[in-house]
Amino acid sequence: MPSLPDAVTVRAAAKVNLELLVGPRDASGYHALATVFQAVSLYDDVTVRRAGRCSLTVAGRDAEHVPTDESNLAWRAVVAVGEGHPDAGPVAISIAKDIPVAGGMAGGSADGAAALVAADALWGVGLGRSELHRLAAGLGADVPFSVLGGTAIGTGRGDELAPAMARGSYHWVFAFSDEGLSTPRVFAELDRLRAERGEEAVHQPEPEVSPALMTALLAGDAEAVGRAMHNDLQEAALSLQPRLADTLVIGQECGALGGIVSGSGPTCAFLAASHEHALDLAVALTASGVASDVRRAQGPVPGARLIHPGKEQ
Ligand code: C5P
User: Fold this and answer.
1) Residue pLDDT, tens place only, 11-40
2) Do the strands 31-50 and 55-60 form a parallel or antiparallel pair, or are they unpaired?
3) Residues at the annotated binding site for ATP?
4) Which of 122, 141, 175, 241 is the most exposed place for a label (fewest CB within 10 A)?
5) Cβ of 141 below 6 Å from ligand 1
């Protein structure tokens, strides 16, 4: 039997929701969702190393905003994998962040997913797909998708996944905001806005992913995907950060095929027609000064995957 490694590094991607429909709120406070996720090429790397005592350090983008105690999803993931496993012991977790914190791109979920896969490999636990999914869903609604990657339909809380039939590669431009948005706060704001219109949160229709988007993805038709992009949480994110509307207008003026708030925001996601168009869009967004940072990425990309030790070792 090959010996177990002393340290494992796993890379997990950010996500964008091409469509995010928010249905009724249940008794636990969660909302029924119908969403289409796509993993995009912005990554966090999580290293889990055997150590004398448990610790967690974070470096990179927004590192100062990330908790370094046992509330961190990566820490909770390692604890969840180790529970009842004889070879589990203290580990030093280090996270290299490139996904914005509280940005609506599942940065925390990516760290949780990466840490699950890393701890599994470090201790040779041999988690099967369904056990990995169960542990991931226990950490948060977006964590199962961060494990899976690609393009997928999410229902339930967003944690019941089915891979989407999707062709092609998509060029994205993301405009970050210097101020994060809390996901529970954005859902609560949507409930409030709906209540103002006389729509009760518990009496929303059951959401269903739109056939137009599925057809567009199947055909690999970026223009049609752009037209079909939609996010029910956008009005709530705009209500909490009204200046995001300026960012969306600039994307539209520069011919983005689609432009929406990503997840619960505040990151704005723009679909470009080509690599060159993405460059132009990124330049225009940067020059306008509306965003704290602008990044290009491609999707879909895989979910959480081992990058060290590599296959050759
Ligand atoms: O599962 P996770 O911890 O990522 O969710 C964060 C918060 O987002 C929840 O506490 C809830 O307020 C909101 N949420 C929701 N319905 C979902 C997913 C998340 O209301 N399906």
Assistant:
1) 999 999 999 999 999 999 999 999 999 999
2) unpaired
3) 100-110
4) 241
5) yes
Q: How far apart are CA 73 and CA 270, in angstroms?
A: 28
Using alpha carbons only, how large is the chain's radius of gyration in Å? 19
**3-class secondary-structure state, position 306:** strand
From 86, 98, 76, select the one nearest 123 (Cα to Cα): 86
**How large a percentage of the chain has pLDDT more than 70?**
99
How many CB atoms sit inside 10 A of residue 292's CB? Answer: 12
Compute φ and ψ for 103, nearest 5 degrees: -105, -5
Confirm or reject: Cβ of 170 under 6 Å from ligand 1: no
Which tokens is 305 given? 């995957």
Confidence of residue 3 (pLDDT cuts 50, 70, 90): confident
Residue 30's closest CA among 205, 155, 154, 157? 157
Which residue, 6, 16, 196, is CA-closest to 107? 16
Task: Grade residue 84 by pLDDT with cuts at 50, 70 and 90.
Answer: confident
ipTM: 0.97
What is the Å distance from ligand 1's center to 221 Cα? Answer: 31
Helices and strands: H and E segment counts in the chain:
10, 12
User: What's the DSSP call for residue 246?
Assistant: H
